[in-house]
Amino acid sequence: MYGVLAVLLLWALALWSLRRELAAAWAEPCLRHPVMVFEGDDWGYGAPGQAAALHDIAAVLRRHRDTAGRHPVMTLGVILAGPGAGATPHEALHAARVTVADARMAPVVEAMRAGVADGVFDLQLHGMEHYHPDALLRASANDPALRDWLATAPFAETEALPSPLQSRWTDASVLPSVALSEADIRDRVAQEVALFRQCFGATPEVVVPPTFVWNETVERAWAAEGVRFLVTPGERYEMRGADGLPVDTGIDYRNGQRSASGLVAMVRDDYFEPVRGHRAPRGLAALDAKWSQRRPALLETHRANFVGASAQHAASLQAMDELLAAALAARPALRFVTVAELARQYCAGGELLDRRPASRLRALLHRMDRPGRRRKLAALLLALTGAALFAAAW
Ligand SMILES: [Zn+2]
Hints:
Blueprint: H1 2-17, H2 19-27, E1 30-31, E2 36-44, H3 50-62, E3 74-79, E4 81-82, H4 89-93, E5 98-99, H5 106-117, E6 121-127, H6 133-141, H7 144-151, H8 182-200, E7 206-207, H9 216-224, E8 229-232, E9 235-240, E10 246-252, E11 264-267, E12 270-271, H10 280-292, E13 297-302, H11 313-330, H12 339-348, E14 353-354, H13 357-368, H14 371-393
Parallel strand pairs: 2-3, 2-13, 3-6, 7-8, 8-11, 12-13
Antiparallel strand pairs: 1-14, 4-5, 9-10
Helix pairs in contact: 1-14, 2-13, 3-5, 3-11, 6-7, 8-9, 10-11
Bound molecules: zinc ion.
Zinc ion binds near residues 41, 42, 126, 130 and 210.
C-alpha cells in the first residue's frame, strides 16, 4: 500500500518537474491540417541572376495545388541593400550603397511582385543589409579579405561574409560581440521598414532576424514600426561568443506566442537546403514529425541553393518539385499558406486550428516525446521507481 502511494507520489513529482514544458506544449494551439511552407531567405540585394531563379521557382510552385486550390508558397526574406562600388570601404558601405529601389534591381523586384500576385511568394523583412554597416567597416580595417569582398560590389554576395559579420543586430567586429545602442537599433529599424514600405507598398507583417541574432530592443523597435510577426528558430540568440557562434539565452518561443514586445512568434526549425543534399525524404520526415505534434512545417531554405557561387539551380528546383509531389501524395489534406496567414490564424483562432481536447492531448504527447526530454524523464522515473522499490522493501 505504502509502496503504491510512494510510486504515485514520485510520478506526481516527476510531472511537477516537467510542469513548465508541459504547460508550454499545452498552451500552443494545434493545427487541424498538415501545413508546409518554404521559407526562402536572403533574396533581394546581390547575386545577379536572381530574377530568372525566382521565375523558375515560381513555375515549380505553380505546378502544385492543395485541396483548397492553393499553390505552395515560398516566403522571401528580403534583404533591401548592400555595398556599391566605392573607392574606400566607407564609400562602398554608405554613399555608394545600392538598395532594391535602384533601377538595376528592378527585374528582381518585378519577379518578386509577379510571384506575390500569383500567390506563390510572400515577402518578409529580413533586413536592410545582411550585416551591420559600421561593424563591417570596423572589421574591414584589419581584414584584407573583407576589403577584397567589398571590392566585388555592386552585388557582392553576403553569403561569402564570415558568419558572425552576417548578424545585423550585434556588433561582431570584435568577439565576443558587443550590443548596439538603442538609438542605433531604432534608427536602423525605422529605415528598413520605411524602405520596405516604399518598395513593396505595405508595411512588412513578418520579420526574420538575420542569422537569428536579435534582442528585446530590436523586437520592440520592429513592433513600434508596425511589424506583427517574428520568425524564430524557437529560441533567441542575442550575441556572438568568443568562438563566433550564436550564444544561447534560454529565451524560448512557441508558435502563436505573443512576446513582451507585442510581436507574435512563429517557429522555423526545419531545413530544406538542396545544396546540402536535402531531398524529398528529408522534407517529408519534417512534415510527418511536425504534423504528429500538430505544428506547421516551416522549411528554411536559402537563395544560395538557386543562385550564386555554390548554387545547384536545376537540382534544387527538382528537389522542391519532388518534395511537393511526394508531400501531397502522402498527406492529401496538406495545406499551403503564407507564414503571415498562419500567424493570423494562431492569433484569431482561425479554421486551421483544432481545439478538440483529444487532438490536443495527442499533440502534447508527441511534443513532449523529444530526445532530450525523453532521456531526462526516463532517468528521472528510473531513479524514482528505484527509490520507491527500496522504500517498499524497507
Ligand atoms: Zn539570411
